[in-house]
Amino acid sequence: MDQPRRLYTDLAWLWPMWGAAADEYAHYCRHVSALVERFAERPASTLLDIGCGGGKNVFNLKETFRVTGVDLSPTMLAQASELNPESVFVQGDMRTVRLGTTFDAVLMDDAISYMTSLADLTAALRTAHVHLDPGGVLVATPDVTVETFQQNRTTVTPGTDTGRRDELDVVFIENVYDPDPSDEQYETTVLYLIRDRGHLRIETDHWRMGLFSLDTWRRVLRDTGFDVCEGRYDTGEDGYTVFACVKR
Fold first, then answer.
1. Could you report the per-residue pLDDT of 10-35, keeping only the tens digit for each?
2. pLDDT tens-digit profile of 35-58?
3. Is residue 212 within 8 Å of residue 145, measured between CB atoms?
4. Residue % of the chain over a pLDDT of 70
5. C-alpha dihedral (178, 189, 232, 149), degrees to nearest 10
6. Are 194 and 201 in contact (CB under 8 A)?
7. What's the pTM value of the predicted model, to 2 decimals?
8. For 118, left (φ over 0), alpha (ψ -120 to 50), or beta?
9. Does the structure show a pLDDT above 50 at 1?
10. End-to-end distance of the chain based on CA atoms, in angstroms?
């Protein structure tokens, strides 16, 4: 994988402004909870959020589960802990982390898309399998697959209110581009338009993400030891493939 992205290091202070935990993430988390309830072969009360970032999913999922979060970025973990002081957070790489305990459910949201090779994707899904009890459920939601990727797509997201609306205004401009359709990666470029008391500051970020076909996802999940059910999650503007996977 690439070096840590600026959004997760020196620009991590912008992350709370990119989508509100109580609004944008709540609907998705209800969808995740419903999938766990539907497919779990045992009562589900604990959940491991692998790639938890700043803890916005945890903020909503903790209403239903006792949640533990894992992330590579200590800066993001600090934000997650501040937002969710009642939850446990551990620094670790999703390809290799081993907590020595198991859970009723595991969530791998968009952070799974940072796996930029088949070997990394396989290792991350093995991590999820290792941390699940038999009959437990993995919910995995890649940002895109080969079938849904839109070349040169650009989205503009105004920052949410930080309580400094009269002083600070932020706009996130995100572009995705695949320079080589024959490989397993695409590029994300982000412009941060930061106006602090009217003074414009422009910052940039750039990283690679993984791009795999649905057939590749299905094969790797099954080979890892999951029974796989596949569905969709729609936001009204975007749709995502969601895998609900039961550990055999």
1. 999 999 999 887 777 999 999 999 99
2. 999 999 989 999 999 999 999 999
3. yes
4. 96
5. -20
6. yes
7. 0.94
8. alpha
9. no
10. 29
Q: Going edge to edge, which strands form the sheet with 168-177? A: 154-158, 168-177, 185-196, 199-210
Contact in structure between 102 and 133 (CB atoms under 8 Å): yes
Type of residue found at 214: L
Instruction: Name the pLDDT band for 163 (thresholds 50, 70, 90).
Output: low
Helix (H, G, I), strand (E, B) or coil at 15: helix
The 10 Å CB-count burial string (b at 16+, else e) for 30-40 is ebbbebbeebb
- C-alpha distances in Å from residue 64, one per residue of 26, 33, 68, 188: 12, 7, 13, 33
What one-letter code names the amino acid at 137?
V
Q: Which amino acid, one-letter code, is at 76?
A: M
**Exposure class string for 116-149: b at 16+ Cβ within 10 A, else e:** beeebbbbbbbbbbbbbbeebbbbbbbbbbbeee
Residue 4, pLDDT score: 62
